[in-house]
Amino acid sequence: MELKKDWIKDLVIYQVYPRSFQDSNGDGIGDIPGIICRLDHLSDLGINALWLSPVYRSPNDDNGYDISGYQEIMEEFGTMEDWDQLCQECHQRGIKVIMDLVVNHSSDEHPWFIESKSSRDNEKSDYYIWRDPKNGKEPNNWASVFGGSAWEYVPERGQYYYHLFSKKQPDLNWANPKLREEIFSMMEWWVKKGVDGFRVDAISYLDKPQDFPDSPEPPQPDGYSFSACLVNGRPGTHGYIRDMNRRIFSPYNVLTVGEVAAPDTEELARYVATQREEFDMAIPFVAPVVEISTWSPKKLRQDIAADYAALKDDGWWARFFSNHDKPRQVSLYGNDQEYWEVSAKMLAMLLHFLPGTPFVYQGEEIGMTNMRFPTIEEYNDPDAKNTYRQQLLIGATPEEALHQAQMISRDNARTPMQWNGTENAGFTAGKPWLGINPNYRQINVESQKGDPHSIYHCYKALIALRKESRALSRGDLEILPVPTDTLFALKRSYQGEVLLSFHNFSAEPAEVPEALLPQSGQVLLSSYDRQGGYQGGSLRPYESVIFRL
Ligand code: GLC
Ligand code: CA
After folding, report:
1. Residue-wise pLDDT tens digits, 142-183
2. Distance of CA 272 to CAs 258, 279, 289, Å?
């Protein structure tokens, strides 16, 4: 496998969701000075790249994923000087800085949109997607991702604008070359300030069919209908991404992670195959609701096999179980009760054993769990609120609707970081913007740092192992055949170095086929280290072990 940017193979990326990471001034909202004072945490873990969820100026309809000033910092998060200091301090520690780039849409409070909506013939009139009403109504039947119509009427223009996400997130019109150039020069400005990479948000939707046909899909409870094939992965979108690459990514050697909705591995490969010159790696977007209903260890293993095969000769993988859009991994895939610690370690050991660049989402390294707020009012996530509304429309009781919202809410992963066992978990001296999980007294960074058998120390060991093992950072993967769907047996090898791993994805014990048990070899890591480590033979619930052969 020949990647132009070999250095991306040595990264372990840590995602910070700034609002919930560390508050420095007692207003209950995480901020950039807070991140700076926690950089030692990242260094201690061994992290060498930081992905910052958006910190740009934003009215926060979608927590910064609605940007009203691309070259400004959100007031609540600090100043541009703070950002400069963050970037400099990261670089001093050997940590690359990856900015979230949200350019499918802006905020409706962006000056471009304010001008665009003011009349049909202003300078920016074509920066967004405007259509005339059809029979006095919306131009078509499309639903927005967060519910309701994807169109919003503006009396000043007598027209509707298109928004894939909330109505405060109007889509930018990529068909307009002037708009594209504005975006590219903005990106260039950040790169020149020292940014090493971009995680590019919701990027598979840039190109839209200009005739906006009705969606053939059955309508959702609120009457609107979403049709992914009409807006997602269109050839024009790939063209815009290649323009971005030619203009910015390649000349400046920046790392790029595209967030794409890719229905299959062929489509995923279209974004990351080296010769296509689009992204270095991609985060395939799966909405929590899909994830929760279709997930199984068997499917996960099939997906790993498929995307390994699709990209091994010409591409690379972003490896993650968690981010700010998904439930907490230990609650979703593991067991956040009896097997909390071993299952959190098992998931970490599996992920870090796979080929690709591992991502760690804040709090994952201490096994933070889902949070169920008792009322819908306590939720912040527009997605959770939409789920609640749609459930009521189909006749669910308020309790049932709340239960659905609790399951899928992105707030599960957005509750503040649990640093220690003191009031408000060490996150803030004020009132936190979103409720803190009460389990912070048991689950927090401070207690785990002092405990050599903690989840935290398992992550630290995995990250250190990846740095020293070329088999992990560059080796081939073999998925060994096993009779049980919930057992993973994997092998990584590179120039004579061979590592083997078993992962029991279940609360039941698992038999390992005799032929796979290593005759000799050293146990490097075990999810049962607290209980004396691997004992040979069958695996205990959520037991995971890595050997060097
Ligand atoms: C991406 C982000 C998500 C956001 C959406 C709209 O999926 O990860 O948090 O709501 O794009 O920008
Ligand atoms: Ca603050």
Report:
1. 999 988 999 999 999 999 999 999 999 999 999 999 999 999
2. 9, 5, 26
Q: Return mean pLDDT, the chain.
A: 96
> What Rg, from alpha-carbon coordinates, does the chain have?
23
CB 129 within 8 A of CB 98: no
Q: Is the pLDDT of residue 277 over 70?
A: yes
Does pTM surpass 0.85? yes
Closest residue by Cα to residue 333 from 544, 505, 545? 505
pLDDT band at 80 (very low <50, low <70, confident <90, very high): very high
Return the best residue to mutate from 67, 289, 325, 359 for the ligand 1 pocket (most ligand atoms within 8 A of CB).
325
Tokens of 527: 């999810």
Q: Helical H runs in 247-379?
A: 250-252, 265-272, 288-294, 297-311, 329-332, 340-353
| Residue of 447, 513, 442 whose CA lies nearest to 484 | 513
Ligand 1 proximity of 325 Cβ (cutoff 6 Å): yes
Our mutation pick for probing the ligand 1 site, out of 17, 55, 61, 62, counting the most ligand atoms within 8 A of Cβ, is: 62
Q: Residue 384: CB within 6 Å of ligand 1?
A: no
Q: Whose CA is nearest to atom 7 of ligand 1?
A: 202
Instruction: Choose, from 259, 341, 364, 529, the residue flagged as catalytic.
Output: 259
CA–CA separation, 344 and 294 (whole Å): 21
The stretch 351-379 carries a mean pLDDT of 97
Percent of the chain with pLDDT over 90: 94
Tokens of 18: 């700034």
Ligand 2 ion: nearby residues, β-carbon < 5 Å: 23, 25, 27, 29, 31
Q: Decide the pairing of beta strands 159-162 and 130-131.
A: antiparallel
For 325-353, how does the pLDDT look when each residue is reduced to its tens digit (9 = 90+)? 999 999 999 999 999 999 999 999 999 99
Report the alpha-carbon distance of residue 437 to residue 457 in Å, rounded: 22
Contact 263, 310 (CB under 8 A): no
Is the predicted pLDDT of residue 1 greater than 50, yes or no?
no
Q: How far is the CA of 422 from the centre of ligand 2 (A)?
A: 18
Q: Strands (DSSP E) along 127-286, which ranges?
A: 130-131, 151-154, 159-162, 197-200, 255-260, 281-284
Three-state secondary structure call for residue 148? coil
